[in-house]
Specification:
CATH architecture of the largest domain in chain A: 2-Layer Sandwich
Radius of gyration of chain B: 25 Å
CATH topology of the largest domain in chain A: Uridine Diphospho-n-acetylenolpyruvylglucosamine Reductase, domain 3
Number of strands of chain B: 25
Strand content of chain B: 25-35%
CATH superfamily of the largest domain in chain B: Aldehyde oxidase/xanthine dehydrogenase, molybdopterin binding domain
Number of domains of chain A: 3
Largest interface: A-B, 20 and 25 residues
Helix content of chain A: 25-40%
Helix content of chain B: 25-40%
Shape of chain A: globular
Structural class of chain A: alpha+beta
CATH architecture of the largest domain in chain B: 2-Layer Sandwich
Number of helices of chain B: 17
Largest sheet of chain A: 5 strands, antiparallel
Number of helices of chain A: 10
Strand order of the largest sheet of chain B: 3-5-1-12-9-10-11
Radius of gyration of chain A: 18 Å
CATH class of the largest domain in chain A: Alpha Beta
Oligomer: heterodimer
Chain lengths: 259, 691
Amino acid sequence: MRYRLHIPTTLDQALELKRSTGGTYLAAGTVILVNHSHAEDLISLEKIPGLKSIEDSGEAITIGALVTFDEIEKCRCIMDKLPSLHQAACLTAGPQIRHRATIGGNIGCFSPASDAVTALVALDAQVELYDGSYHRMPVEGLRELKDGSIITSVIVPTRFCFSAFEKVGKRNAMSVSVLNMALAGDGKLFRLAAGCTAPHVLFCSRTSALLSTDAVDMEKAKDALVSEIRPIDDRWGTVEYRKAVSRNLLEKLVSEAGL
Amino acid sequence: MHEIIGSSPMRLDGPDKVTGRAVYTADIHMEGTLEVALVRSPVAHAMLKGIQAPAIPDGCYLFTAKDLCGNFIPSIFSEQPVLASDHIRYQGEAVAIIAAPTREKADELASEVKLELEILRTVDSIEEAVKDDAPRLFENGNVCSVFHSDKGDVEGALKQSALVLEGSFETPVQIHGFMEPEAAFCCLDEKGRLAIVSATQNAYSDLYTAAVATGRQNEEITSRAATVGGGFGGKDGNTAQVYAAVVTHLTGKPARYVYTREENIRWGMKRHRSLTHARVGFSEDGHILAADCSMLLDTGAYALLGPSVLGLGLEHFTGAYFVPNVRLDGSLLYTNHAPASAMRGFGAPQAALAFESILNRAAKKLGINPLEIRRINAIHKGQEGPMGGVNEHETGLEEALEKFSRSDFYREMSENPEKGCGYGIAVGMMSSGLGKHIPDTCYVTIDRTDSGFTVSTSLVDIGQGSQTVLAQIAAKALGVAVDKIDMRMGRTDGNPDSGSTAASRSTFICGNAIIKAASEILGGAVHAQAAYAFPEASGEARHTYFAFMVQGAKVKVDPVTGKVDVLWMHSTTDTGRVINPTLFNGQVFGGVAMSLGMTLSEQVRYKDGISMENSLANYILPTAMDVPLLTSDFIDKPEPSGPYGAKGMAELPTVAVAPAVTAAVSDAVKGLEINRVPIDRMEILRAGGKA
């Protein structure tokens, strides 16, 4: 594998390199380098200042794109206020990879199996993008990075008094999810997200609506969930298994939420 | 001086390994070394009509079957070509060799070679291979070998049985999962000989294979093992060696071939997938009266050691018990998969899943404790084995069962089981020695030096620690401390052929040869060479030495996901006398972890002959987070013919793990019987009403 490595020190330099070389942004490289990307130009974001902090504004926690999973795992305010994201970070890969891999890189991979993205979608998080100016978009709707936009941070509201995350893997570490699910609730409204059930992490809107009613009908919610998700048979699991476990995990999360 | 036998001195290779000084094959560098890549078939079954090569730049090379002196790899049937020249039988089969200054360049050239192929229908499973209209891998069809043995009157005894249990079982294709992938280096030595250095279990086998392919005399080749990072059967026979040797022979330049992890997972040797069936008859008081057992194995495209695996699997089918009436039937089948061959346990784990599971179910149905049903059926010295030969050597299964019954594990299981957990027991039995009719002799040379003794043999320490154990035996035999012994292993040069590091044979056979040579040294010689041959079994039996292991599993099952967490595995072993308890435990714990992988998550699956698994991200080996509490003890019942009482045990810990775990899962999820591993979580969800 041969490539040119560019190391810009500002976001504008990075954008310019992206436009001139058509290269690929590189955060930690735990996906790009392992998958032997054929990218000829890699644009490292590592030396750009301002992408590595975690800030709690009271209403939201803003996590810089280059914050590592390991830092999320050890961050007190995330542990306290965003337990589902904390749990998702703890269950991602293994300690060595968590020490290197970043939240922005993880979002930018657009993996349907991302544990962190499932937690973020349920938490109604937004990403901040830079393409010459700053924009915000819900993580939920993000499918691609247009015009070389750079993810600079993810903004996670802390209004949910309940949040929980569940992961099903084939083993207890270094495991791609077979299914993952996150639930967040502010007492009235609940948001459910599921991974590995569609080409992207899915916000389960109909199920969320059913969970946000006064008297939750669990069977109806489970049926709604199974009709909402679109899993496939692959090397990790079958449609049948994913549907069965989706129902079971929903029940477990709802019972944890005390609904 | 403290007792050498039964103690655990520091392993001799330990310091080099923990400091990174140990030299593995891929570490060997020499100016001008060519890196090797293979042109591999993109499809699983085809006729090769032509090879279109790109322009090969100066300093790079392409070789095909036409460049070989002999185009077969010596093995039981020797039907595997070094390079396919007409019929391609598996995806990834080697068609041409590319050598270039870098692996990157070699890979690039390999990808530019175009193969003209006439695609054939793929035989993708055992089930397909046996069909009448299945495509044929060989002229004679897809049956590679068969095995049959009959003792007593099976049908008559089954009719008279109070309980007859029957079941069909399945185990997956498993890989060895060694840390170091297959690798070979070759150069010409100062005498112009081909000098092969490799990750190997058998230096002589590499020499013979290279001799066929290059047309050289055996004397014109030397072979030695580098430090080997695990073998488990997967480096017993040719992997990378012949390709590096051919390149050096044809170019005169050093050559190196190191498998990528994808090559290792897809095209390295495999454990045979199995379909087994058993009908077992019991008396009301739990005695096994008859067993009718069958086994089908997927050997992939070539036999390699498959016929022996089938024989050993069936010979071990009825396990550690005396069964008066036994029928054994089996077939080894060709499919369009990468070849399976030896893997630790060599057919016995596949058989044990069937027989031990049935035994556990019989115990439950008859209301007999699972240890007790094994005790009353335990085979004794002097009794006949399943094929009629008399079991002539020490058997300590009853003592092992007794010791197990006093363990903390069994106390918890029987008196104080943890709520929500399940417990299961199984017994493994494993032979040592290559088996009747296979040359099985070890040669050892001892030389007195100024500082002590050198002990030489062609046998290889593949990482299991045999050089430390053998040094202990030599030290004891010569009456010196272990640090006076300089072990020199794994070289053909200066050593006669002692065969493979396989069949749990090294400690027993090499230990005995060392003791024999040492007695000449003690008689005053400065140089002594001794040979020791494995004693042959009597009657129809293939093997005569067996070790035994009682294993208990404790599991917790998640009803939400169907996931099984194994919490504790306890093992009690009879392997005669344990020479080195630390290395013994290493074998036990490693073997248990290996078979936990097969039980819970490991498998290679094929679609149109192409493996779905191709990396360590999707071939699911257990991690440190998956391996449970492991405890181990042993009984001390010396085998008089073993070196200081020892019997071989390297493969034994893999045998009974799966049936112990599946029994524990059945204990946790009432009503569930598991006949297939890796365990399918859907079966658990269905049994718990959660699917």
